[in-house]
């Protein structure tokens, strides 16, 4: 992987992590185009770590406020974040290698088939939000948190957007736009942190034996963080203006392109 390829992947990650179009799906497509043959999710996790930094910086005031509340004995929001993280953490812990093998192998035609199907599913979900009756309900409860957490676990599959699915589920269940968006981003923090740490420990032999990877991965990290910060604001504006469903058209087109690529239709 060259430095230029890493920069391009970082920009792709920064754009697609927060827009509901699946960053993992786009990274698989980009790796296929660039013929990047790393056969696990190391690249994806490194780039996700970059967008984690953009979340921490953009929502720094909210994070500081929640930390102060926690210190003052208000544990509800912290407990909700932990509860919402558990489903994805369990899936990652017990099925990570299986997911890598099936969904992240760019040479496996079934991986592209699954990606295509997931994009069609995502397009349908995003289109459905157009017909959602937006609510003013601001309070999270444990039922909402569990369903949003399950949505985040499902979104570990490439082609299913984490931000898209968690926000859509929150809106479908009656949470208002601002609360749904904030909780979706907050929920990303622990899972992105956990997978980053796990990937570092799981792949440190690869990094030590392939020192040429360090510079590209660092560049990808930096550009994903910078691009992600810019895109967060765009994402929030589109949700507030009820234009979130526009991305269903894009996801449907990606699914069609993958269909044509796989079967030459």
Walk me through this protein's architecture:
- The protein has 265 residues and is an all-alpha fold.
- The protein has one domain (3-263).
- It has helices spanning 3-16, 23-34, 42-58, 60-71, 76-103, 109-128, 142-154, 162-172, 177-209, 214-240, 247-263.
- Helix 1 (3-16) runs antiparallel to helix 2, helix 1 runs parallel beside helix 10 (214-240) and helix 3 crosses helix 9.
- The relative contact order is 0.20.
Which features would summarize this protein structure in a list?
single chain; 265 residues; mainly alpha; 0% strand
The poorly predicted ranges are none
- Helix tally? 11
Strand residue content: under 5%
- Mean pLDDT score, rounded? 85
- The biggest beta sheet, please? none
Shape assignment:
globular
Radius of gyration: 18 Å
Oligomer: single chain
List how many beta strands DSSP finds: 0
The termini sit apart by: 31 Å
Give the topology, please.
Elements (H helix, E strand, L loop, with lengths): L2 H14 L6 H12 L7 H17 L1 H12 L4 H28 L5 H20 L13 H13 L7 H11 L4 H33 L4 H27 L6 H17 L2
Quickly describe the structure:
The mean pLDDT is 85. Helix 5 (76-103) packs parallel to helix 7, helix 6 runs antiparallel to helix 11 and helix 9 (177-209) runs antiparallel to helix 10 (214-240). This protein is 77% helix and 0% strand.
